[in-house]
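Table S7 (text form). Paired inputs.
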Amino acid sequence: MWWNHQNLEIPRKDASGGVWHFRVWHGHVEGTYVQLVFFWNDAKSESGVVEFRGDQALHVSRLKQVIAKLVSSSEYRLRFRRDLEFPVEAKYATYRPLG
């Protein structure tokens, strides 16, 4: 299910003024708790997803730190680069393995 509220989904600006968008999906998959942090820029030319499974799952405050790092660090974003299909909410409403 999509994690609404707690300001995880609000757009954020990077140092150059670029706008980044985020959606966080979370749920239990085959008995394991999974969190997915989807991200993309306004032009949708850069996108990706960060996955946390099981004991890697983060509290909302740590998820916000991950989002802040995605905004500020192009090197960090590159580690999780993936082409996404839009709208994200429709295409990724149910979990699919990232591999």
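Next pair, protein 2 of 2.
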Amino acid sequence: MAQISKAVVDSAIRENVFGMLDLSAFKKINDRQYGILVTDMNGETRYVRLGAIVAEQREDITAEELMESEIADYEAKQAAKAEKAKAKAEKIARDKAKREAEAKAKAEKEKEEEGA
């Protein structure tokens, strides 16, 4: 039996995936993408592309393992970003409290010097 080319297989996969979606509001851009015009929160018209990327087959990892590893990578990056944002917010709060304490101490010192 003849092997079907990667281009034909990938095209069929994308067609199948796009067929699973309700693309009635979208226009076909090419074999790999659909597009739609939307209005953003600033009232500007924006062009949004919806694309399907078919991952390469690998001998060292199954499709399921590849998908799970990409999900795990994404979740780890999101968790790291959240931790960084939390640390930044805590530092901002500490710095603000320190500035307020310094300003209060300075005001009290000036008040004492005026009274003396």
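Residues 60-116 form one domain.
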